[in-house]
Amino acid sequence: MNANFDNITEILERNAHEWANDVALVEINPQELEGARATWREASLIVSSATDKFRSEITWGDFNDRANRFANFLLSRGYTKGDKVAILLMNCLEWLPIYFGALKAGCLAVPLNFRYTADEIKYCLELADADVIVFGPEFTGRMEQIADHIPRVKTRLYVGTDCPIFAENYFRLVRYAASADPGFHHKPEDDAAIYFSSGTTGFPKAIVLQHKALLHSCRVEQAHHGQTKDDVFLCIPPLYHTGAKMHWFGSFLVGGKAVLLKGVKPEWVIRCVSEEKCTIVWLLVPWAQDILDAIDRGEIRLDEYRLAQWRLMHIGAQPVPPALIKRWKSVFPHHDYDTNYGLSESTGPGAVHLGIENTDHVGAIGVPGFGWEAKIVGPDGVTPVAKGEVGELAIKGPGVMKEYYHNHEATQAILKEGGWLLTGDMAEERDGFIYLVDRAKDVIISGGENIYPVQIEDFLRAHPAVKDVAVIGLPDARLGERTAAIISVKDGMTLTEDEVNAFCTDLPRYKRPKTVIFAEVPRNPTGKIEKPKLRKIYGADNLIAAQNGLA
């Protein structure tokens, strides 16, 4: 497995050559057989009309063949090195072959967030200079709204039936393209993909990643979690995001199977682990909590499932409450656990990770990952702070982005001398481990004190009735800002403001929430709390109405 590769398309070629008939990807659509009493595999055979919709799979040979056909189609249309291919699909078997097909043609893959509105899709297509878009039926309405306003995107490929008039049918066109490898060779420094920042602080920025960054992410993930050919990776998060795909890269590097589960219900996750014999599962905080809650309520009985092979559960994309992991390990004591830290600008997770051997330091994001360096810097973005002081986390390694596309000013603000990338996250070091304090832009300054919402959120999540919580700052005439806790209560439980206040007496007085609001906590598809949305909802003008309606 230590072969030298210049880019990730060479890994796909190797996998197809060595394991052509081994299953590479499985797609599971559990809603097609919701409520089936038989196992999913048995039910899919009984309900023949749902078989193709419920479970489908492709081998490494199929995967490579599909990627080659798409690459050769692009080349036949005149697209090649430097052209941009946008991908707007829900997770499906076609997603990754399309991604790799774009790379094989020399193009840049441009994954798009499936939650984007029509205007946001148009904005990102224009920002990235996209030439091609591949989209699914879920996006026909949004694409129709902008079809006449994206003149540069001349090739619009539709993955599905009932192709709209403003697009061409992907399957009909690609089916007849050549299946041989097009033979395009990338250098490690060539541009490979454009990803978009999460947009939690405004309009998304276009992040240019090179082939060497994608390749390094494969090695990082495999080095951290020791994937072998026999491991089965369960992928639930959206593939457009670096988190899901780059965790899959560890299995991809060794030719392991992956399962794309289209749904996050706790029973679906556990059944999928059991019936597809999954060994590695990457979860977001809300999903892990939902699974534990379902077990506590008796909705999931673990003795009814085959889970002995499940060896690793890891979490990333957001701060992880230590109380959640303590609870998880009490239910699944044999699981290895890891926290993974990264950002799209660092080609996803792994720049910092806890390490499965360091579960006694749960609460830390960990230590620099494989091939990475890290330091905590002061306001100048360069000079390290004294040990134990809070500063901004900076990282350096082969996965650092090349630039923000068409945004030199933003690039200069985040990329510093020597290849250091400023993360925008406030952190501190204790006992050799890095602890995330909060996003720099989320820090609340109240009465001259810096308050880090993540610390208060972790504290409140330890309350048995709290399902989810977000802490934000609201305008205050005297203090400048005051802390507000938006709390989602677990199903079947109750919680009052007085009970929250009583629980918070163990916090320093200045950290205690001054306002408590009971409401759902909005999160984006990668699990991050959408704090700009909360600030807009519960701003000064809306605060009284929100409290009256939701508290």
In short:
With 551 residues, the chain is of the alpha/beta class.
Q: Quote the average pLDDT.
A: 88
- Going across the major beta sheet, what is the strand order? 2-1-11-10-12-13-14-15-16
β-strand amount: 25-35%
CATH topology of the largest domain: Rossmann fold
Give the CATH level 1 class of the largest domain.
Alpha Beta
Distance between the termini: 56 Å
Radius of gyration: 24 Å
- So how many helices? 18
The major sheet is characterized as: 9 strands, mixed
Strand runs, count:
27
Low-confidence stretches: 46-51, 540-551
Number of domains: 3
Assigned CATH superfamily of the largest domain: ANL, N-terminal domain
* Portion in helices: 25-40%
Structural class: alpha/beta
For the record, the CATH architecture of the largest domain stands as 3-Layer(aba) Sandwich
Described by the principal axes of the CA atoms, the overall outline is globular
Which SSEs are present, and which pair or pack?
Layout: H1 8-18, E1 23-28, H2 40-46, H3 51-54, E2 55-59, H4 60-76, E3 84-88, H5 95-104, E4 108-111, H6 118-127, E5 132-135, H7 140-146, E6 155-158, E7 168-169, H8 170-174, E8 191-196, E9 206-210, H9 211-225, E10 232-235, H10 242-254, E11 257-261, H11 266-275, E12 280-283, H12 285-296, E13 312-316, H13 322-331, E14 336-343, E15 348-353, E16 367-368, E17 373-377, E18 391-396, E19 403-404, H14 408-414, E20 415-416, E21 420-430, E22 433-439, E23 444-446, E24 449-451, H15 453-461, E25 466-476, E26 480-489, H16 497-503, E27 515-518, H17 531-537, H18 543-550
Parallel strand pairs: 1-11, 3-4, 3-5, 5-6, 6-7, 10-11, 10-12, 12-13, 13-14, 26-27
Antiparallel strand pairs: 1-2, 8-9, 9-19, 14-15, 15-16, 17-18, 18-21, 20-21, 21-22, 23-24, 25-26
